[in-house]
């Protein structure tokens, strides 16, 4: 397994947990519907790329106008999200794009900045809860921005499309390790340590 497959292994474990008989998983299934696209870049990952597709596109910069020919997985997921958003019977509340980060430590999130201060404050609650419940998640590394370079990302595009009750994040997790708060020692991510 090469490094670009690590995130998908984590997603696989999330799916395993959600379909398990764990009491928390049962409660989640009773109240929520999860739609999971485990990998939008299968051809690129197969070739060892973690950012670019077989055709050389960084798919996380093409959310504004994905081509069904050049970005078929992205196009399909975007159409599904728009269909769900337009369905009055569905309340689309969270979009979380999961990535591995090649230079930073810990888990952290990117979120959007909104003019509405109350919406911005509500958006910060989920990362704060993660920080309180996951020793490898860093709220201080979490960033809320509207950087022009990120305009084509799912988080930015969907944050502008969806209504004020929806929250869009990018969850980044280090390829390497995390630092437990109050220490300087790095704890490497290992397969055994990631078991849910």
From TrEMBL:
Which molecular-function annotation in GO is an example for this chain? metallocarboxypeptidase activity
One Gene Ontology biological process = proteolysis
Q: Could you tell me the superkingdom of the organism this chain comes from? A: Eukaryota
Q: Where is the active site?
A: 172
Question: Which InterPro entries has this protein been placed in?
Answer: Cytosolic_carboxypeptidase, Peptidase_M14
UniProt keyword terms in alphabetical order: Carboxypeptidase, Hydrolase, Protease
Domain Peptidase M14 residue range list? 1-196
Necessary cofactors: Zn(2+)
Pfam families, A to Z: Peptidase_M14 (PF00246)
Respond yes or no to whether keyword Protease is given for this record. yes
Please give the family membership noted in the entry.
Belongs to the peptidase M14 family.
Q: What is this protein called?
A: Cytosolic carboxypeptidase 6
Q: Which organism does this sequence originate in?
A: Cricetulus griseus
């Amino acid at each position: 397994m090469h490094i670009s497959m690590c995130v998908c292994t984590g997603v696989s474990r999330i799916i395993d947990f959600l379909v398990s008989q764990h009491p928390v998983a049962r409660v989640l299934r009773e109240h929520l519907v999860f739609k999971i696209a485990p990998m939008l870049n299968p051809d690129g990952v197969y070739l060892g790329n973690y950012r670019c597709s077989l055709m050389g596109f960084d798919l996380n910069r093409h959310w504004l106008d994905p081509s069904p020919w050049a970005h078929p997985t992205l196009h399909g997921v975007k159409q599904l999200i728009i269909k769900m958003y337009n369905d009055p019977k569905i309340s689309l509340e969270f979009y979380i794009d999961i990535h591995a980060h090649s230079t930073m430590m810990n888990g952290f999130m990117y979120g959007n900045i909104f003019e509405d201060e109350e919406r911005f404050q509500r958006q910060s609650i989920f990362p704060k809860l993660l920080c309180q419940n996951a020793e490898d998640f860093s709220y201080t590394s979490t960033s809320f921005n509207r950087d022009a370079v990120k305009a084509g990302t799912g988080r930015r595009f969907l944050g502008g499309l969806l209504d004020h009750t929806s929250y869009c994040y990018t969850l980044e997790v280090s390829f390497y390790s995390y630092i437990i708060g109050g220490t300087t020692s790095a704890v490497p991510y290992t397969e055994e340590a990631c078991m849910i």
